[in-house]
Amino acid sequence: MTLVTVAQKYRQQSPLVFCLTNTVVTNFTANVLLASGAAPAMTNLPGEAGPFAAVASAVLVNLGTPSTEQLRAMDEAVRGATKAGTPWVLDPVAVGALPVRTEFARKILAQHPTLIRGNASEILALAGYQSTGRGVDAQDTVSAAISAGRELAQNYGSVVAISGAADAIIDATRTTLVHSNGIGLTGITGGGCALGAVCAGMLAITDDPFEATIAAHGMYGLAAENALALSRGPGSFASAFLDELSLFAPEELLNLRLQEANHA
Amino acid sequence: MTLVTVAQKYRQQSPLVFCLTNTVVTNFTANVLLASGAAPAMTNLPGEAGPFAAVASAVLVNLGTPSTEQLRAMDEAVRGATKAGTPWVLDPVAVGALPVRTEFARKILAQHPTLIRGNASEILALAGYQSTGRGVDAQDTVSAAISAGRELAQNYGSVVAISGAADAIIDATRTTLVHSNGIGLTGITGGGCALGAVCAGMLAITDDPFEATIAAHGMYGLAAENALALSRGPGSFASAFLDELSLFAPEELLNLRLQEANHA
Amino acid sequence: MTLVTVAQKYRQQSPLVFCLTNTVVTNFTANVLLASGAAPAMTNLPGEAGPFAAVASAVLVNLGTPSTEQLRAMDEAVRGATKAGTPWVLDPVAVGALPVRTEFARKILAQHPTLIRGNASEILALAGYQSTGRGVDAQDTVSAAISAGRELAQNYGSVVAISGAADAIIDATRTTLVHSNGIGLTGITGGGCALGAVCAGMLAITDDPFEATIAAHGMYGLAAENALALSRGPGSFASAFLDELSLFAPEELLNLRLQEANHA
C-alpha cells in the first residue's frame, strides 16, 4: 500500500487501540486517537487486560507510570496480544533511568513487540547500552541510537522507532528517516506517548509494520507542523494539534520528507 | 421546579460532587464540573470514600478504568451514599465488553443507583441483554435500548439516561428524549463521563431525579451546541465547551427541544 | 539573587521536578512545568520513587488522590529526598476533610518539607486547627490561616505558602503577600496543584526557599493575569495560561506587587 492508502484505511476502519499507558497522558492519548480517526479504550485490570488484548485491533504498552497492578495487566495484555496475533507497541518510557520498569521492559521484550517506540536514550538503555537520559528526556541524539535500534530490530523481530529532530524508523535491514518539524510536540507532555498509540492503530491497518510506522509518524508529524503555524505557545499548540489531526488529509502524506538508508 | 430554576439553583448552591471515575477523564470531568458551577472532589481510597460519600452533595461511580483498590472504594462510597441518602450515579462504562466491571456493576445495582447513565450498548448489557459494544463505543441505537432502560428503571427504582443522537431519559413510567447537537462531544474523550458528573450535581438540587437528569442533559447539550459553532476540530471544541458551560445562561433551557412519550 | 535572576536561572537550568501528584492534575502539572521551562517526571512506584528523589532536582508530594501504593512511594520519595538533600514540597490537598491523607501528612511533616503549599483550610488543618474546608475548596481566608502557617514554619523549619486572593509566603520570621489576579486559576482544576510543582522547581534554583517560593508565585500569578486578558472562560484560560507561562519574560517580575509584614 502507499502511505496515503494506509492513512485512508485507518480513517475508514477506525482501529480499536487498547492503551495501557501512563496517568500523565491518558486523556491526551485518547483525544489524539479520536482526532486521528481511531477508537481508544483503556483498562489496567488483570482479568480484563488479557481478554481485551485478544479482541482489540492493537495494544499499546507504555511504561510511564506503572503501578504493581498495571504491570500485571500489561504482562497479561502482552500475552493475550501475542496469542491472538494482535500487534502491540512497547514504549519504554524512562527505561534506563528507573529500575523497576527497566527490568520489566527487558522481560516483555521476549514477547517480541511489533514495534518499539522511544527516544534515543530509552532505545540505547533498552538495548543494554549506557544512556544519559534523565527521567523522560532524551539526552542522546537519534543518530547515536540507530545501531542500538538495529540490534533490537534484529534480535526481537521488531520495528524500532526513535523520536527526535528527525524520527528514525528501523527494521532488520532498513532505516528510514522521517522529517517533520515536531518542535511543538516537545513543548507539551505526551507528544511521544500519544504517537505510540497512533502507531499501534496503524499496525492494525497493514501487514507491513515498517510502512505502518512511517505512516503514523508522517501523519502525526505533518499535523504537528500544521498546528505549529497556528499556535503561540504550548496551550494553543495542543488544541490546534487535535484540530489538525482531525482535519488531516491522507493526501498530505505525498509531501512527507523521507530519507532512506540501507544498513551498513 | 422548572428546568431553568433547577439550573439556577445548581449555580447558586455549587454542589460538591464526589467522583470515583476513570483515569482518562479525571481532569476533564473536574473542569466540566467547575465550568458548570459545581465543585469537584475525588478520592479512590478505602477509608476515605465511605465517609466522604456521606458528606458530599452527590457521588459519581464511573467504571471506566477500575483498579482493585478503586473498586473497594467504590463499594464503600455506594454504601456510604446509600446510608446517608446521598444521590449517586452509576456510569457502567464498557459493561458487557469487559468482565470484571460487568460483575461489579451488576452487584452494586442492588444498592439502587439514583441514576444510571450510559450509552445504548452499556444499558443493554447492564440489563442482561446481548449488546454489540466494543470498548467504550456504543454499537447499538438509543431506541434499541429504551425497553432495557425501562426494565432497569422499574427493577431498581433508578432513572436511566441513554446517550446518543438524542438522549433518552427514562423512569418507571416515562421516557423523554432530549434533543441537542452533541456531535462535538463524540469527538473528544470523556464527553459522556463528564455528563454523568453534571447529572450527579443536578441530583443534589431537586428531589425529582427525572427532572434533574433532563436539566443536566439540557445544559450540557446546549453548551455543546454553542461550542460547536465556535470550533474547527476537537481541540478547539473541548476548550470552547468549557467556556460555553461557564457562560451558559439557565434561561437557554427554555429553548430545549424535548419529546415526551408514555411507556407502552 | 533578585527574583528576575531566579526566574532566568530556572529557564536556563530547567530543573527536573519529580511529581508524586494526584490523578486529576498530572497532565496539567506536567504541561505547566514544561511551559514554565522545567522538566517534569513522575513515578508512583516503590522501588523507583526513592532512588529517583535522590537524583531529581526537586520533589513534589501532592496528596490529592493517594492510592495505598502511592503513599508508600511518597514515603520512600520523602526519605530519599531528605537523605540526598533534595528540596521537597508538601501539598496537603484536602487534609482535614479526608482522614487517611490527614494522618499521612502529619507523619511526613516530621521529615521537614522545604515548602508546604496549600489553601487556608488545609494549612489550618495541617497545623491542628479546626478548618471549614470541604474537599479541595478553602472556606477560610488567607489571613485567618497566617498564624497557623507561622507555627508550621517555626515547628518544621519549612516555608509555608497559602494560596488565596493574595498569596501569603511565610517563614519563621517573615510574611510576604504576593498580589496577582489569579481568578482565572480558580476556574480550572489543578491551579494550586501545578503551582506546587513550579515552586518545587524554583527551590532547586536558589538556596533561599523563601525567595524561590515568591519567584514561583510571582511568575505563576503574572502569567495567569496575562492569560485572563486573553480568555473568555476556563477552557480558553487554561490554554492561554500555558502559552503565557512559556512566553513569560523574567523581567516582568519587576512589576510584581509584594507586601511585606514582620510577624507580630
Automatic annotation (TrEMBL), chains A, B, C:
Keywords: ATP-binding, Kinase, Magnesium, Metal-binding, Nucleotide-binding, Thiamine biosynthesis, Transferase
Pathway: Cofactor biosynthesis; thiamine diphosphate biosynthesis; 4-methyl-5-(2-phosphoethyl)-thiazole from 5-(2-hydroxyethyl)-4-methylthiazole: step 1/1
Binding site for ATP: 117, 163
Catalysed reaction equations from the record: 5-(2-hydroxyethyl)-4-methylthiazole + ATP = 4-methyl-5-(2-phosphooxyethyl)-thiazole + ADP + H(+)
Keyword hit for Iron-sulfur: no
A GO molecular-function descriptor: kinase activity
Pfam family, one: HK
Binding site for substrate: 42, 190
Named cofactor requirement(s): Mg(2+)
EC number(s) given by UniProt: 2.7.1.50
Similarity comment text for this entry: Belongs to the Thz kinase family.
Xref: HAMAP family: Thz_kinase (MF_00228)
Main function: Catalyzes the phosphorylation of the hydroxyl group of 4-methyl-5-beta-hydroxyethylthiazole (THZ).
Protein name: Hydroxyethylthiazole kinase
Protein source organism: Glutamicibacter ardleyensis
Lineage summary: Bacteria, Bacillati, Actinomycetota, Actinomycetes, Micrococcales
